[in-house]
Amino acid sequence: MSVLTETDERHLRRAVALAVTARDAGDGPFGSLLVDADGRVVAEEVNTERTDDDITAHPELKLARWAARNLGADAAAVATLYTSCQPCAMCATAIERAGLGRVVYALSTDQLAALRPMPPYAPVAYAGPALLAEARIAVEAT
Fold first, then answer.
1. Rounded distance, CA 85 to CA 107, Å?
2. Per-residue pLDDT averaged across 83-104, rounded?
3. Distances from the Cα of 59 to the Cαs of 33, 49, 51, 138, in angstroms?
4. What is the pLDDT, as a whole number, of residue 119?
5. Would residue 60 show up in a list of annotated catalytic residues for this protein?
6. What is the pLDDT of residues 122-140, one digit of tens each?
7. Long-range contacts made by residues 38-44, C-beta under 8 angstroms, separation at least 24?
8. CB neighbours of residue 72 within 10 Å
9. Strand 80-85 relative to strand 31-35, pairing
10. pTM of the entire structure?
């Protein structure tokens, strides 16, 4: 873990405050903000899974989408996403795809699970890979 600066701590406290806002609105307690290279907050989001009836309405995912639409690659690479909890796999992938350069989080996934146990998800059966000769046509043409 890297050492956090006073600026990091200030932005992380804002992410936690946003998480409280989400919780008070009836959503999961998660909040995030995106900060540019100069330390300016460029966007903030809260979890809205329940209020939007959308299981993907995580603040980190919403900010990754915002960054992909609104920031160039160079600006994204030097931006920092501050978030109240360690991003889930879905959000982490979106953050990577958006090209964001850094993530700072308050609670780890394990710490969150200890504080707020979740029921296990139902197992999913995956089958594949399959039909390589056919499936590769769509990919190779690009």
1. 5
2. 98
3. 8, 9, 13, 32
4. 84
5. yes
6. 999 999 999 999 999 989 9
7. 39/7, 41/11, 41/14, 42/70, 42/71, 42/79, 43/67, 43/70, 44/14, 44/18
8. 9
9. antiparallel
10. 0.90
How does DSSP assign 13-80, residue by residue? HHHHHHHHHHHHTTS-S-EEEEE-TTS-EEEEEE--TTTTT-TT--HHHHHHHHHHHHS-HHHHHT-E
pLDDT, tens only, 22-52: 999 999 999 999 999 999 999 999 999 999 9
Cis peptide bond upstream of 129, omega within 30: yes
Distance of CA 141 to the CA centre of its chain: 31
Give me the count of residues in the chain. 142
Q: Which of 4, 24, 2 lies closest to 12, judged by CA?
A: 4
pLDDT of 1 above 60: no
Closest to 30 (Cα-Cα) out of 54, 66, 69, 57:
57
Q: Residue 120's pLDDT is what? A: 84
Catalytic option among 6, 9, 45, 60 = 60
Q: Report the C-alpha gap between 89 and 38 in whole angstroms.
A: 28
Helix, strand and coil content of the chain, in percent to the nearest 5, comes to 45, 15, 40
